[in-house]
Amino acid sequence: MNHPSDLHYTKNHSWVRLEGDIIVTGITDYAQDQLGDLVYVEGPDVGKNMTAGDEAGFVESVKTASDIFAPIDGEVIAVNELLEEDPDLINTDPYGDGWIYKIKPVSVADLDELLDADDYEQVIG
Description:
Number of domains: 1
Helix content: 10-25%
Largest sheet: 6 strands, antiparallel
InterPro entries: Biotin_lipoyl, GCV_H, GCV_H/Fam206, GCV_H_sub, Single_hybrid_motif
Domain Lipoyl-binding: 22-104
Family: Belongs to the GcvH family.
GO cellular component, one term: cytosol
Strand content: 35-45%
Radius of gyration: 13 Å
Order of helices and strands: EEEHEEEEEHHEH
Shape: globular
Keywords: Lipoyl
Distance between the termini: 11 Å
């Protein structure tokens, strides 16, 4: 499994990348592998204020459906519209073109509460 060391992770299999003062997030390589081929992705509404742990949408695969959760507090500022037509981007490029949404965080310091790649590896065993 690929879990880049420059990202932050949650125990519920989201990844987080800081880009300037914006947080980009999606589901991990491990999560997409467990789900199988994705057929539908629904992210949160732009403008929605999220609290860490809030339901932020869901992904559906040929096997199952799974909720996705906000990794930190903040306002949703963008969703990846490419996923509407091509949800498989998460399977082929979970940390790049397969991002799900972007958040303007309340506090970038909240990233310190998330897992690093080594800690996430321990979570997934």
